[in-house]
Amino acid sequence: MDDGGHAYAIREGFRINWMNMRDAATGQVMWESGEWDCGQDEMEAQIPCEILRCKQISRELNFSSLEVLTSLRLVQSVIFKGEPLEEWNFHFGFVIPNSTNTWQQTIEAAEEEEMLPAELLSGNVVIETTFFDGDYPIMTQRVRIWYV
Amino acid sequence: MGLLGLLKKMKKDDMEARILILGLDNAGKTTILKTMTSEDISHTMPTQGFNIKSIMQDGFKLNVWDIGGQEAIRPYWSNYFENTDGLVYVVDSSDTRRLEESSRELKQLLAEEKLAGIPTLVFANKQDLMSAAGAEDVSAALELDFIGDRVWQIQACSAKTGEGLQEGMEWLVGNCRKG
Ligand SMILES: Nc1nc2c(ncn2[C@@H]2O[C@H](COP(=O)(O)OP(=O)(O)OP(=O)(O)O)[C@@H](O)[C@H]2O)c(=O)[nH]1
Ligand SMILES: [Mg+2]
Q1: Which of A3-7, B18-22, B52-56 bottoms out in mean pLDDT, i.e. has the lowest?
Q2: Which residues surround ligand 2, an ion (CB under 5 A)?
Q3: Binding of Mg(2+): at which residues (chain B) (predicted)?
Q4: Alpha-carbon separation of residue B60 from B16, B54, B163 (angstroms)
Q5: From the candidates B6, B61, B73, which should be mutated to test the interface with A, based on the most A CB atoms within 10 A?
Q6: What is the mean pLDDT of each run of 10 residues along chain A (148 residues)?
C-alpha cells in the first residue's frame, strides 16, 4: 500500500465515539454527546451553566482506530468568537490496531472574577479537536457550546 | 487571557509526571482510576486500548496511562514504557489462581530496560472481598522481596471502597523522579 492509501485507511478507520464533561470535584457528568455523528462538521452542546461555577472540570473523549498508529497526537483549542484562546497538545504516540481509547483531561477553571458571564459565552465558544498521526491530520471535530 | 474564563492558562515549565498502570485483565486498573476521580464504577468495561487521565493543577501535570490487560493486548504494553516515571501494577487479590500468571507478567516488566529503576507500586486490589489474599500473601506470591533494583511498595486496596488508593498513589508520586 502506498502512503496515500495508508493515510486513507487510517482516516476511514478512525472515529470519535463520544465526549463528555464533568464536574471534576464530584465526577458528575454535566454533559455527554451520546453517539457521535462523525459526518457532522460542527456539533452543538447544551451545557448547564452551573459548569461555569465548577472549580475543576474534566473533558473526556473516546475514540477508536482500526489501523495501528505510531504517532497520534491531538491539538485542542477553545475558540471564542473565532479567536483561539487556549490550546492544548497531547501526544498519545502508539495506538493499538482495533482499539478503543479514552483521554480525559482535568483542568482548573478560572477564578470567578475572571469569568465572562454565561450569556456572553453561550454560542460563542467552540472547542475544536484535531487528531494527527505525526504531521498528517486525521480529523477535526468542533463542538459549539451553549450554556443553558 | 483568562477572558474566556473557562480555563486558566497553562503555565510554562510545569512539572510533568507519567504514571503507567498495568496488570492482568480484570485486576481493577480502570476501576481504580474511576474511583480516584469520583466516577461511577458500575459500568466499567474491559479496556480495549488505553485510558489516559491528564490532571493539571498548580502547574503540575500528571498523566496516568491505564492499558488494557487482556492477553491479546499485553504484547502492545511495551509501546507505552517510554518516559514512565512511576509504575503501578494491579493485582486481583481474590483471584488466587491467577497470582502466578500475574507474578510472571510483573517479572517480565521489571526486566524491561525501559522500565529499569522505575519506582513501582503494587496494588493488592479487591480487599473488600472475603476471598482476597492479604497484601503479605500477594507480596509473597509475586516474590516482591527479591526486587532490588528500585524502590517499591505494596499497598492493600479496594477500588470499590476507595480504601488504600490515595496512600498508594501518594507514595508513588512522592517517589517519582521529578521534571
Ligand atoms: N469487589 C471488587 N470488585 C472490583 C474491584 N476493583 C475492580 N473490581 C471489579 O473487577 C472487574 C474488572 O475491573 P476493571 O477495572 O475493568 O479491570 P481492568 O484491570 O481495568 O481490566 P482490563 O481493562 O481488561 O485490563 C469489574 O467488574 C470491577 O467492578 C474491587 O476493589 N473490589
Ligand atoms: Mg481496564
Answers
A1: A3-7
A2: B 29-30, 47
A3: 30, 47
A4: 6, 10, 25
A5: B6
A6: 77 94 91 77 89 90 97 94 90 98 88 78 94 94 93
Measured from the alpha carbon of residue B40, the closest ligand is 1
Annotated binding site of B for Mg(2+): 30, 47
ipTM of predicted assembly, 2 dp: 0.91
Closest partner residue to A27 (CB to CB) among B5, B6, B37 is B37
What does the block give as the cell for B58? 498548580
- B166 is an active site residue: no
Sign of CA pseudo-dihedral B23, B25, B31, B34: positive
Separation of alpha carbons B96 and B94, rounded Å: 6
**Residue among B8, B10, B48 minimizing CB distance to A110:** B8
Beta-sheet strand order (sheet of A56-65): A28-32, A14-23, A56-65, A99-108, B50-57, B60-67, B15-23, B86-92, B120-125, B152-156
Domains along chain B with CATH numbers:
3-7+16-175 (3.40.50.300)
